[in-house]
Design brief:
mainly beta, single chain, five-stranded antiparallel sheet
């Protein structure tokens, strides 16, 4: 770990950088071997953000990152995820990247990004493909205006960050939306520049050339408005897109460049809204984050839906009760699936007091998918910057 003086200096810098209002993905991340979980925690009172590591075998909690208090009243959150080597965690802030080595004497690496990062680029964990991490931002290009004069114009750009050298490359990309990866490939969903009104595009991105390869354009009037959540399978041949049509929640299954199937998961009057999804290893089931209104006081369940793709009963596993925020709840409440497909992790740690999360429900939730009753383990979380062991409550 870092010497305290160096660590505190870096973390203060990291906190100072977070001055723009963004909502960052709050999703747990399993280590590649499935034995540990990292997740961000937000303390709405102190405006301090931390990242903790939970060891599933030792049942112990360790704080591995603490930010400086935010300098405004805006809530902050950071995204944390394991790198493929299982020895490092990458932490994303607002236009900042930090790489934390775990269990080694290697130094922490800190990179402030000069390019402007777009807020919607941070709603999902910024994808890591090979040695690169990718984000969406803006870059200035020179163009002729109507009078023939050369002017500088901001264009959507794809940012490629080399996590080994910390070199940054950017290129105009021609769409605004979200990025998602599957470890080996990079994909996008969004509205293409100069595209048809009322349609959106799904495609693949070349990670070296930084060019896009459109796969499919979908009309909103036919398939619903995309919510921004899209999940590729392991080999990138299929996608699950979450959409909303007349307030009904749907999942579009795409194979290649064709809509394979549309699944109506929840009717308008169900009170259910869908978040991010995970494919089961056999691709027979989708696991989805959801919120569900349960009473007139706007309280809602937060939990996991299991949707059998061949048809059948949708299974709900509620985790905790809070007030869903229409815009941000399903960004701040996302699920992660372990590599063996046997466990789901979720957390309430980034939902603020405005969501009414009770102190006893501020936790990491682990859903055992191998258990027929879907046993849920609740692990208490420390408030930043406290660290130490956490008692595991079952």
């Amino acid at each position: 770990m870092l010497p305290p003086r160096v660590r505190d200096t870096l973390l203060t810098l990291f906190g100072i950088m977070a001055l723009i209002v963004y909502v960052l993905a709050c999703r747990p991340s399993f280590s590649p071997d499935g034995t540990k979980v990292v997740l961000p925690i937000m303390d709405a009172k102190t405006k301090v953000t931390s990242v903790v590591l939970y060891d599933l075998k030792k049942k112990s909690m360790e704080t591995i990152f603490v930010s400086a208090p935010a300098l405004t009243d805006e809530n902050r959150a950071y995204s944390a995820q394991w790198l493929p080597d299982g020895k490092r965690v990458v932490v994303n802030g607002v236009s900042t990247i930090m790489i934390l080595p775990l269990g080694s004497s290697n130094p922490t690496r800190f990179l402030p990004l000069e390019e402007r990062v777009e807020g919607n680029s941070l709603e999902l964990p910024a994808p890591v493909v090979g040695k690169y991490q990718f984000l969406l931002g803006k870059t200035s290009v020179q163009e002729k205006n109507e009078k023939g004069a050369t002017v500088s114009v901001d264009k959507s750009a794809l940012l490629q960050v080399n996590l080994e050298t910390l070199d940054v490359k950017s290129a105009p990309i021609g769409f605004e939306g979200n990025l998602v990866g599957n470890g080996g490939q990079l994909f996008y969903i969004g509205k293409p520049e100069n595209g048809d009104e009322g349609s959106y595009e799904l495609g693949r991105l070349d990670t070296e050339k930084l060019t896009k390869i459109p796969l499919l354009q979908v009309k909103e009037k036919d398939s619903g408005e995309p919510t921004g959540f899209v999940t590729p399978n392991k080999n990138g041949s299929r996608f699950a897109l979450m959409t909303k049509l007349e307030d009904a929640q749907r999942v579009l299954l795409v194979r290649g460049n064709v809509v394979e199937k549309t699944i109506s998961v929840a009717a308008r009057d169900s009170g259910i809204r869908l978040g991010n999804a995970e494919w089961s290893p056999d691709e027979k089931t989708l696991y989805l984050a959801y919120t569900k209104k349960v009473n007139e006081e706007e309280l809602g369940q937060f939990g996991v839906l299991e949707v059998p793709l061949a048809g059948g009963r949708v299974r709900e596993t509620p985790l905790f009760t809070a007030k869903p925020d229409k815009d941000n709840s399903l960004i701040l409440f996302q699920i992660a699936l372990s590599s063996d497909g046997r466990q789901i992790a979720a957390t309430s740690a980034c939902l603020g007091e405005e969501n009414g999360v009770k102190a006893e429900e501020r936790a990491l939730y682990l859903v055992d998918l191998s258990n027929a009753k879907r046993k849920v383990t609740k692990v208490a979380l420390p408030l930043p910057p406290v660290s130490g062991s956490a008692a595991e409550k079952k």
